[in-house]
Amino acid sequence: MLNIVLFGPPGAGKGTQSRKIIDKYSLVHISTGDLFRKHTSENSALGQLAKRYMDSGDLVPDDVVISMVEDKIRENLNLNGFIFDGFPRTVNQADALDSMLAKHDLSISGVIALEVPKEELKSRIKARAKTSGRADDQADGEINNRIAVYNNKTAPVAEYYKKQDKFTAVNGVGSVHSIFAFITEKIASF
Ligand code: ADP
Fold first, then answer.
1. Burial of 62 (0-12, 13-18, 19+ CB in 10 A)
2. Which of 107, 132, 141, 157 is the most buried (most CB within 10 A)?
3. Dist CA 74 CA 151 (whole Å)
4. What is the full DSSP assignment across the chain?
5. Is the pTM value of this prediction over 0.85?
6. pLDDT tens, 91-126?
7. CA of 57 relative to ligand 1 center, distance in Å
8. Taking the alpha carbons of 62, 162, 2, 27 in that order, is the dihedral positive or negative?
9. Which one from 19, 20, 72, 128 is the annotated catalytic residue?
10. Left if phi > 0, otherwise alpha if psi is -120 to 50, otherwise beta: which for 103?
């Protein structure tokens, strides 16, 4: 199985590139942000809980995210592999992901980080706000909080995977097509 973590700050293009990766490699997409938005739109208990954190740009508590991902892994074990998008977002989540996969004799094949400067992230999120309908895309306060949360809690996840020699970065500025070409080169080396 090919199990990839697509890593990077909010607005880096993880969703866009994930869709292309899924098409090419037939992987199961596990986007924790999309899963939470689905729960929120259905107004489930999990959705109501997640919304309180998401709207202000804070992280949903680890135990909630981890059990949701564990269910998705269990439901899709007989396929080609997974692409994790927006997960893990803390070192604790990364540790939990390794343990969950190990239970099924699986592991992460590699991590690809999309690197995009902060000012570019902000302008992309603001452009997306016009069509996304996402509360967390609309105002500077929430956007800045998401970037700060990324720097404080999520950036250390890169170190976690560097220690395992699984981390690789690509320039996330350029055309969707050219960035995807860099990603496929990286995947070929896993
Ligand atoms: P983006 O990467 O554009 O910020 P996502 O769609 O990945 O957006 O996530 C939106 C929100 O969902 C996050 O700001 C956070 O509140 C919540 N969320 C998503 N994934 C996680 C996660 N792995 N851990 C905690 N919270 C998460």
1. middle
2. 157
3. 31
4. -EEEEEE--TTSSHHHHHHHHHHHH-PEEEEHHHHHHHHHHHT-HHHHHHHHHHTTTPPPPHHHHHHHHHHHHHHTTTSSEEEEES---SHHHHHHHHHHHHHTT----EEEEEE--HHHHHHHHHHHHHHH--HHHH-HHHHHHHHHHIIIIIHHHHHHHHHTT-EEEEE--S-HHHHHHHHHHHHHT-
5. yes
6. 999 999 999 999 999 999 999 999 999 999 999 999
7. 8
8. positive
9. 128
10. alpha
At 133, which amino acid appears? G
- Asked if residues 14 and 179 have their Cβ atoms less than 8 Å apart, the reply is no
The angle formed by the CA atoms of residues 190, 99 and 58, to the nearest 5 degrees, is 90
Atom of ligand 1 nearest to the CA of 33: 6
- 52 assigned to active site: no
Judging by DSSP bridges, how do beta strands 2-7 and 110-115 pair with one another?
A: parallel
